Known about the structure:
This protein is of the alpha+beta class. Helices cover 37% and strands 21% of the residues.
Amino acid sequence: MKLSSQPKKYVRKALVVIGIILVASSIFFLGRQSVYYFNQQITTEQRAAMIISDVGELIHLPQDEIPQVAGITDAGALKQTQPFLVDAEDNDILIIYSQAKIAILYRPSEHKLVSVGPVISNPKDEGTLSDKESISNSGEQKHATSSQE
């Protein structure tokens, strides 16, 4: 039996189309990867501004001060010493507005606020978050330390 040349043409065309789709999708995904790679090169200030912008979509933020922004890298240790961070996970972000006296725990992976509470500060230490300041959640006093990025 001899196969007609017509089915061979369709098979060949189908393979060409599949090849084009594979090449196009590879280019698309490699392009996306390069965007993520280059975004890793942004400065700390730019990253903080992007985080503040994302949080600003979820809650009204003070516009008259620059917050302190700290990444959570060891949530387990923080949970033991700082009850405000009891729901924190690694890679969460702690944002503190010292003048407005607001602390925000933000989870970028889920784009949600985990916790929001007041910052109670010692009057002689106004302006920066220190070991003497505490974060309060539901009226409980908590000790917090943070580094400004």
